[in-house]
Amino acid sequence: MRFTKMQGCGNDYIYVNCFEERVPRDLVTLSRAMSDRHFGVGGDGLILICPSEKADARMRMFNADGSESEMCGNGLRCVAKYVYDHGIAAKPNLNIETGRGVLSVELEIADGKAVSVCVNMGKPILQSAAIPTTLPGDPPILAPLTIDGETLKFTCISMGNPHAVTFVREITDRHVHVLGPRIETHPAFPRKTNVEFIRVNRPDDATMRVWERGSGETLACGTGACASVVAGVLAGTLNRKVKMHLLGGDLDIHWCENDDHVYMTGPAVEVFSGIWPN
């Protein structure tokens, strides 16, 4: 089975072109095996690029632990680049079917290749039951949650997948590696959650580290960056246009007042291709 390794801001996934490849049925085991950074290809998960009856292609995303997730913003940009660069739909404006629905993307083309992708991520989901979370509020805004004796205030958003965002003066390894996994699996989040730790540099500039549901700390999370800007606006700490600095690079996020949609712009890079023995 041929695969392609791609990354967006260091958020790396293994991509399989299901227009051409036959994928094993046990996708949980496949994702775990291929994602293993010591014994496999190595990545934050597996993404399938599939035919779609309603869009140019369909994206299915599996985390490194084998669990299937609804959305991945960095992954979606890479899917769009692959679809364009490999001739599945060689046009600068694409529609990609995801677990969030069909999302539109606009590609910046240079020398016949997509180098940057702007994704219309749609409207943020703000109802607690739909996020889902049992923290109070629609959505919860700066709702206190105590973990290991430390109380943090969370603003919760869904971008098709759940996010719990907290604003801190300085982001520490303890925040991410100790509290992150405990927040991910806290009973307040019935389907677990991604956890974003945000340091506000200016109202239009912020730094983020993320503990991703099912994958642990990753170098970037596109949906997390989008959710964090929405959370910052609701909490009164960020503007609607923000440059978000992640460990793997920068994303430009805009929560547009006119249509209430969140737009994410960032890079997409093809790293290498190979053959995985079935």
The number of helical segments is 4
Structural category is alpha+beta
Q: Give helix and strand order, one letter per element, not per position.
A: EEHEEEHEEEEEEHEEEHEEEE
CATH C-level class of the largest domain is Alpha Beta
Helix content: 10-25%
Rounded to an integer, what's the Rg over CA atoms?
Answer: 18 Å
User: Quaternary arrangement of the chains shown?
Assistant: single chain
CATH topology name of the largest domain, in short, is Diaminopimelate Epimerase, Chain A, domain 1
Task: Report what the structure shows.
With 278 residues, this protein is an alpha+beta fold. The protein has two domains: 2-117 and 268-275, Diaminopimelate Epimerase, Chain A, domain 1, CATH 3.10.310; 143-260, Diaminopimelate Epimerase, Chain A, domain 1, CATH 3.10.310.10. It is 17% helix and 43% strand. The chain is built from four helices and 18 strands. It has an 18-stranded mixed sheet that branches. Strand 13 and strand 14 form a beta hairpin. It is globular and about 50 Å long. The model has no long low-confidence stretch (mean pLDDT 96).
